[in-house]
Design a protein that fits this description.
Blueprint lengths: L1 H14 L1 H5 L3 H8 L6 E2 L8 E5 L4 H12 L4 E5 L12 H19 L3 E4 L11 H4 L9 E5 L6 H16 L7 E5 L10 E4 L4 H11 L8 H12 L8 E7 L1 H5 L5
Parallel strand pairs: 1-7, 2-3, 2-5, 3-4, 5-6
Antiparallel strand pairs: 6-8, 7-8
Helix pairs in contact: 4-8
Length: 254
Amino acid sequence: MVAIQKKIIDFIKKTNIIKKINYNKFVFYFLFGLKSQFGRLKINIGANCLVLSQYPGAETKGLGGLIAQYPKNFEVLCLTNGSSMLSEFAPRESASIKKQQFIDVMKQLRIKGYKIFDIDDKTLKNHYSTFKKIDISEADYIFVPNVYDNNIDTIALLRHFKQIIKDKEHKENLKIIMYESDFPLCTLDYFADISPIIATKKRMLDTYYPEDKYPNFVNRTLGLNAFRSIQHGCDFCETFMMFTPDEFLKIPLI
């Protein structure tokens, strides 16, 4: 395998394809499995953290433990209402249930701020006029879902977010952090040890995915956190990839 990778890299160097395609570090790591830095993610006192979630529950799957550790630092915006998430209910009823679940989880944490938008699932691409009203000027960290999640609203969220990064005022030292929700990240920069708070994350997930309707869903989700922790001397961790705005804008979207 190493020999094959070396041949591919040698070929790319000879053809100068890297400069032609302008791969950023994310895609380069994806192709060749290069080792990135792997530090502990710590949120400083007073830091403003904004989470953009593509549907109710995505924020909890990806960084529920981190939010639970720093609730006073976080604001969570859920961009769609979950109208198609409960197939046994009509869209309006599904949206009402998922909205209440989101509110219950946020209240449980006593989070700094939260909002769920009344945008139907799979239609976020048509709502940039709503998205662009989001204020990012005071954020020190903005958390967004994995760029390679196979979800139409994730793609729309990231496209809209790229646009407001270009158009709106933001801090010079803003960091954009990608989290895992529907699919694991292909490479990692940072981790957060959530072992002390894992029971809280489980309760959060149970609110969205009760065992009687989603057998083993919560345990399987936490299984990823357990797997990620193997090399860090803890029991559970959440993992992330961090970008500057300039780096993030270079990431090619599907």
